[in-house]
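Summary of Year 1 activities. Much of the first year was spent building the evaluation harness for sequence design. The harness presents a backbone, in tokenized form, and records the residue chosen at every position. We chose the following record to illustrate the format because it has been used consistently in internal testing since the harness was completed.
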């Protein structure tokens, strides 16, 4: 069993290459691992390893590759996050996902384990009475059932961390959050703070004091509270206005300055330094087009020093470009030119850094970098069976929508193609609000390009990462301006000569499925087909079914961002089936809580009644996106065959092996 986990974590499978149209197996295989972090001492790595319907945690000894510990959880459950809280002890939480596209629902269980697998225990959470699913952990009695979430990875002392806690409820709820100090060996809790707002998140200073709390009640209006020290009273510092808010991202080393990510009235967010004694604000970082995607911190601290930006391709910027951290990052970006480069973790002395290198054609390589000797050593790859040099190139694009708003996206053309007059798939992301496509390796994009298609991804209004005004521009625009952006993107690709105007289809999952079906209803002469994966198609039903509306803030969200129930029938594609003139493919899961299968069945029924050719693929035991490899393989085999009948591209090979996906090209 240990060898199985080690192989899953560190080795790529090799198989004979089959001459094939599209080797679907290579695209549905799980990553060898998801996240990997080096321990503060540098003696171990911890990594999350995705299996077919769960994600497990493994610990590996550096140098020997010996597997020293594992933690496995039940079906649809994943180790959601983990942190080295001492040189040889991990704390980690779990989440449940009902489908590959579903947002993880954190269980509130927190566990701890030594690097050698000893002293494994559940510390706090809903499963504390029975030890947790699939474990041999002894149950505890007398600890009230609560949900707890790690908020302070560096411990305030050798045995304790800070966690946020809420009363455990079966199902969504708007609850007040408290902060507790948790003993990482015996699970004892000590109250640190309560806050006057529900659904709160916290920011700590460099001494571990809880200084900021932000959250929202059922009305969805965000509030930010501040206090001068542990035990002091909370003061309301900021309340959301015109959809704008600000979130704390850290403190200066002396805790005199708080750094905030501030949503601006127009354009992207800014990083602002706030002098706490005087209230003076100074902008320290802001991009012309995009928000900061991730804050960069000084090793082992809460001190922000820069940020990563995904403006077309990813890059880093620093408050002070002459700091040692900035020079190190820029030297790594120079060494791995053409890739995104992130330091994911470091030893406590800063001598060894774990560096992730990835791109739109590279799923990710990890290197150990000796910061003193300036030497990088390749550790492992997420998907060794993909050769980045053989993948299809992905380029950032932008165009003006019909009302002048600048829309960004990505265009992929098949490797070796001239990039002109191609059959094209417009592939639309889900969400839709606050989510965006990025310049990163995407299985579906590369698979479709492998089949001979140009692929256009569109960050339509409402998408995240371009400032609050851009996201807010999508509010209540399902089927309206958001859909017009997709139409305008398609016509842009035709005007550029990339797409053959007679061979274009729409495809997407979740909201992307809605937009695909809505697209062929609104523009029946522009597209040749549409495919929807775990989609929502009857918008009034979103007010009565699914997991969003089960809490007060969720109902507020639907009303404010999607629309009132009585206004949504006219922008529901299942009620516009008589306008659809092209073939449709629908796929859905019976356990889907976000987009219940009812939507797909209603869409299918309406299409059949209208005489529209429709194919379906339903799995009763799948959720919001298919987990099981056999099901994903069947879905993509069916999807490629469906697209091929309308566009003429490649289909899945029979007997594909999961080997080098591009070796036969």
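For this record, the design step produced the sequence shown next.
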């Amino acid at each position: 069993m240990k060898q199985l986990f080690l192989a899953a974590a560190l080795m790529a499978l090799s198989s004979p290459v089959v001459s094939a149209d599209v080797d679907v197996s290579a695209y549905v295989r799980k990553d060898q691992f998801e996240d990997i972090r080096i321990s503060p001492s540098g003696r171990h790595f911890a990594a999350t390893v995705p299996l077919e319907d769960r994600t497990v945690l493994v610990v590996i000894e550096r140098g020997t590759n010996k597997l020293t510990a594992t933690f496995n959880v039940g079906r649809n459950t994943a180790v959601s996050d983990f942190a080295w809280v001492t040189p040889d002890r991990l704390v980690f939480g779990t989440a449940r996902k009902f489908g590959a596209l579903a947002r993880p629902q954190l269980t509130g269980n927190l566990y701890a384990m030594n690097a050698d697998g000893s002293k494994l225990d559940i510390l706090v959470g809903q499963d504390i009475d029975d030890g947790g699913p699939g474990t041999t952990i002894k149950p505890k009695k007398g600890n009230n059932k609560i949900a707890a979430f790690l908020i302070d990875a560096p411990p305030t002392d050798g045995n304790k961390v800070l966690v946020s806690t809420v009363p455990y409820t079966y199902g969504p709820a708007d609850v007040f959050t408290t902060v507790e100090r948790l003993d990482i060996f015996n699970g004892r809790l000590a109250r640190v703070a309560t806050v006057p707002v529900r659904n709160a998140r916290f920011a700590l200073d460099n001494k571990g004091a809880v200084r900021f709390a932000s959250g929202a009640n059922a009305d969805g209006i965000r509030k930010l509270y501040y206090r001068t020290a542990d035990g002091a009273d909370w003061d309301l510092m900021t309340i959301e206005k015109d959809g704008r808010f600000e979130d704390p991202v850290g403190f200066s080393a002396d805790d005199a300055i708080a750094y905030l990510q501030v949503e601006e009235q127009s354009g992207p967010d800014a990083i602002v330094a706030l002098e706490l004694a005087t209230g003076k604000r100074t902008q320290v970082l802001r991009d012309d087009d995009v928000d900061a995607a991730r804050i960069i911190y000084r090793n082992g601290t809460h001190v922000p020093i820069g940020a990563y930006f995904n403006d077309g391709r990813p890059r880093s910027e620093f408050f002070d470009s002459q700091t040692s951290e900035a020079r190190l990052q820029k030297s790594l970006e120079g060494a791995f030119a053409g890739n995104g480069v992130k330091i994911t973790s470091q030893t406590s002395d800063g001598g060894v850094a774990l560096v992730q290198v990835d791109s739109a054609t590279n799923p990710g390589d990890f290197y150990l970098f000796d910061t003193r000797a300036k030497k990088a050593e390749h550790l492992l790859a997420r998907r060794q069976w993909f050769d980045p040099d053989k993948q299809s190139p992905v380029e950032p694009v932008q165009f003006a929508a019909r009302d002048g708003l600048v829309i960004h996206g990505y265009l992929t053309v098949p490797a070796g193609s001239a990039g002109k007059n191609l059959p094209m798939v417009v592939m639309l992301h889900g969400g839709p609000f606050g989510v965006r496509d990025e310049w990163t390796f995407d299985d579906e994009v590369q698979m479709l390009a492998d089949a001979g298609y140009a692929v256009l991804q569109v960050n339509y209004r409402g998408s995240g990462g371009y400032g609050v005004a851009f996201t807010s521009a999508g509010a209540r625009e399902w089927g309206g301006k958001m859909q017009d952006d997709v139409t305008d993107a398609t016509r842009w690709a035709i005007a550029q000569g990339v797409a053959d105007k007679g061979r274009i289809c729409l495809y997407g999952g979740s909201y992307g499925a809605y937009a695909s079906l809505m697209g062929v209803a609104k523009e029946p002469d522009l597209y040749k087909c549409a495919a929807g994966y775990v989609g929502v198609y009857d918008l009034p039903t979103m007010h009565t079914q699914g997991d969003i509306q089960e809490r007060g803030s969720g109902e507020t969200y639907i009303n404010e961002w999607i629309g009132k129930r009585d206004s949504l029938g006219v922008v529901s594609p299942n009620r516009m089936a008589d306008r659809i003139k092209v073939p449709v493919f629908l796929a859905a899961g019976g356990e889907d809580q976000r987009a219940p299968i009812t939507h797909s069945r209603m869409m299918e029924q309406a299409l059949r009644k209208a005489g529209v050719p429709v194919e379906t693929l339903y799995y009763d035991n799948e959720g919001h996106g298919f987990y099981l490899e056999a099901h994903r393989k069947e879905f993509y085999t069916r999807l490629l065959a469906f697209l091929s009948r309308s566009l003429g591209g490649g289909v899945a090979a029979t007997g594909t092996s999961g080997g080098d996906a591009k070796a036969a090209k």
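The longest strand covers residues 499-509. Quantitative recovery figures across the full test set are reported in Table 2.
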